[in-house]
Amino acid sequence: ARAQIGVTGLAVMGRNLARNFARHGYTVAVHNRSFGRTQSLIADHGDDGDFVPSESMADFVASLARPRKIVIMVKAGAATDAVIAELVPLLEEGDIVIDAGNAHFPDTRRREAELRAHGLHFVGTGVSGGEEGALNGPSIMPGGSVESYEWLGPIFEDISAKVDGVPCCTHVGADGAGHFVKMVHNGIEYADMQLIAEAYDLLKQGLGASAAEIGEIFAQWNTGDLESFLIEITAEVLAHTDPETGAAFVDVVLDRAEQKGTGRWTVQNALDLGVPITGIAEATFARALSGSVPQREAAVGTLVADASSWDVTDRDAFIEDVRLALYASKVVAYSQGFDQIAAASAEFGWDIDRGAMARIWRGGCIIRARFLNRITEAYERTPNLPLLLADEYFTAAVGNGVGAWRRIVSQAALNGVPTPAFSSSLAYYDGVRAERLPANLIQAQRDFFGAHTYQRTDRAGVFHTEWTTDRSQTQES
Ligand code: NBP
Question: Which reaction is recorded as catalysed by this protein (predicted)?
Answer without folding.
Answer: 6-phospho-D-gluconate + NADP(+) = D-ribulose 5-phosphate + CO2 + NADPH
